[in-house]
Specification:
Number of helices: 5
Mean pLDDT: 94
Oligomer: single chain
Number of strands: 0
Shape: elongated
Strand content: under 5%
Helix content: 55-70%
Order of helices and strands: HHHHH
Radius of gyration: 17 Å
Structural class: mainly alpha
Low-confidence stretches: none
């Protein structure tokens, strides 16, 4: 049985956990002049990856909706998808890095591997199983050439 937890829910849960970690460890927090600019750069870069990945999907006229992946009509392997099978999810990771900078908590970064694990476990594996059933050898070949994350 595949349990699927949509990416935005995972993002919100991990961001909340990061804030909880920040609140529980105030002596380990930092407050520098670079927090807001770093947050802005990381979040804009993450948003850029999400938008570029979405644009590529739209150019293939296939769904970007992680809830309705069954509606996928094309295997997207161009653009950012030549380098990573999940550039939009990498964008979410960058946003969480930005969030850690904004809240000033180095310790909260321990939540990032949990996000990557949960995305892989509860979304990406579901997507990959469906894509393999739908596109067969084409997807298997793509998986061999392009890493899941980076």
């Amino acid at each position: 049985m595949n349990i699927k937890i949509i990416p935005i829910v995972q993002l919100i849960l991990i961001a909340a956990a990061m804030l909880g970690i920040q609140k529980l460890s105030p002596s380990l927090n930092y407050h520098g002049n670079g927090n807001l600019p770093l947050f802005t750069i990381l979040c804009l870069t993450g948003f850029g990856l999400i938008m570029a990945g979405s644009k590529e999907f739209l150019s293939y006229k296939t769904t970007t909706n992680p809830i309705n992946i069954e509606n996928t009509t094309q295997l997207v392997t161009s653009g950012l998808y030549k380098y990573s099978r999940n550039p939009m999810y990498i964008g979410l990771v960058l946003s969480l890095l930005g969030w850690a900078a904004l809240i000033g908590s180095v310790l909260s970064l321990i939540a990032l591997p949990l996000f990557i694990w949960s995305m892989t476990q509860y979304q990406i594996r579901f997507e990959e199983d469906l894509l393999e059933r739908k596109f067969g050898k084409d997807f298997i070949d793509y998986k061999k050439k392009v890493p899941r994350w980076l």
